[in-house]
Amino acid sequence: MTTETVRITVEGDAPYDVLIGRGLLGELRGLLGPKVAKVLVVHPRALRSTGEAVRDDLTAQGLEAILAEVPDGEEAKTAEVAAFCWTVLGQSDFTRSDAVVGVGGGAVTDLAGFVAATWLRGVRVVQVPTTLLAMVDAAVGGKTGINTAEGKNLVGSFHPPAGVLCDLDALDTLPPHDLRAGLAEVVKCGFIADERILELVEADVEAATDPHSPVLAELVERAVRVKARVVGEDLKESDLREILNYGHTFAHAVELVERYQWRHGAAVSVGLCYVAELARMAGRLSDADADRHRDVLQSLGLPTTYRGDRWPQLLDAMKRDKKSRGALLRFVVLDGIGRPSRLEGPDPAMLQAAYSEISSS
Ligand SMILES: NC(=O)c1ccc[n+]([C@@H]2O[C@H](COP(=O)([O-])OP(=O)(O)OC[C@H]3O[C@@H](n4cnc5c(N)ncnc54)[C@H](O)[C@@H]3O)[C@@H](O)[C@H]2O)c1
After folding, report:
1. What contacts 336, CB < 8 A, 6 or more positions away?
2. From atom 37 of ligand 1, which residue's Cα is the shortest distance away?
3. Which of 27, 38, 148, 290 is 20 to 30 A removed from 260 (C-alpha atoms)?
């Protein structure tokens, strides 16, 4: 199916373009810029043939392209894997005008971004996200990072890419669970800033979950526009960017309690339902808008409830979440669809009551 290529510019100190379409590999050279001579193509084991296709394309265009194959998923986001990439860069005499290309899910784009941010104090990186989550979230916005034994994303830096290539053809091989997990972030964008996203899912959930459908292409475009608008105004998470964390305080707590065995998008789905209940109880959100969270996410096959016997652990995890300010729990809540606001220091009884509302037992 042909889809017109969409170009979305992320503003800021160093503006860059996000391209969304199909068969976009030929656009990569342009995003890398004219000065680049060597490229490190970082890809996970599972996407070896995609990594090779990227390398061959760049080689055919006269660049020296070197592959760095890294482990799949979170195993790529370690200091050891970053050090492996630095070794390849060093042994290949990469200079400041050369570049890194990250081909993969959010784990690889986070790693590739971090390697680019740190090599010679920062070289260009172009991201080629291959999961829905990476297209609409991880690859756009300039946050890069790796994990340590003490926690996720504890080491990293802000290093905006020189460009992002969202080739929707990559989604053909993505397992349905991963596609749905990415849709949780898309739906989040719908609630905070673009109601049309919710309407598209409500109108045709089959199309919304079909990687070939123009509906999914439109959802990606709309979600990227929301993120681009927010990070273009506020790269470093001061105030506006915080709205992207809608649903994430509870989601991060679930991820921690589940020892990161849950997909991020699944945790975000439950987190959105939790914070909708909280806003409803605080008198901020109408019953209909709160119910809409559960209905939309449920229609996509995402979890909307969580086990009922984990409150002390969840509360403790939320208090330690890096997005909280001091001892005060702080949530992004909605005063209505597309109207994000803040709720600081809610009554502990209300926090627990909202949990009871989304408890499965
Ligand atoms: N930097 C940010 O702003 C930001 C935002 C959100 C999430 N993240 C990070 O993103 C990561 C999660 O990303 P994810 O959900 O994309 O998971 P992932 O990167 O772990 O990928 C999931 C799995 O899918 C495989 N895969 C990737 N693309 C595929 C494809 N097209 N077909 C088949 N298999 C494919 C991967 O090899 C991996 O095994 C986390 O590390 C999270 O911290 C970063």
Report:
1. 285, 286, 289
2. 72
3. 290
Average pLDDT, the chain: 95
Digit-coded pLDDT (tens) for 186-217: 999 999 999 999 999 999 999 999 999 999 99
Q: What is the pLDDT of residue 99?
A: 98
Binding residues: 72-77, 106-110, 130-131, 143, 152, 185, 248, 264
Q: What is the pLDDT of residue 325?
A: 57
Rounded-to-integer distance, Cα 42 and Cα 167, Å:
17
Are residues 164 and 258 part of one domain?
A: no
Domain closes at, from 149, 173, 197: 173
Token readout for 150 is 């003490």
- Provide the 8-state DSSP code for 136: I
CA distances from 339 to 192, 193, 222, 274, 296 (A): 6, 7, 17, 17, 18
- Note whether residue 141 is domain-resident: yes
Residue 248 belongs to domain spanning: 176-210+213-358
Identify the CA nearest to 230 among candidates 83, 340, 90, 131.
340
Tell me the CA–centroid distance for residue 108 and ligand 1, in Å.
Answer: 7
- The CATH number of whichever domain residue 154 belongs to comes to 3.40.50.1970
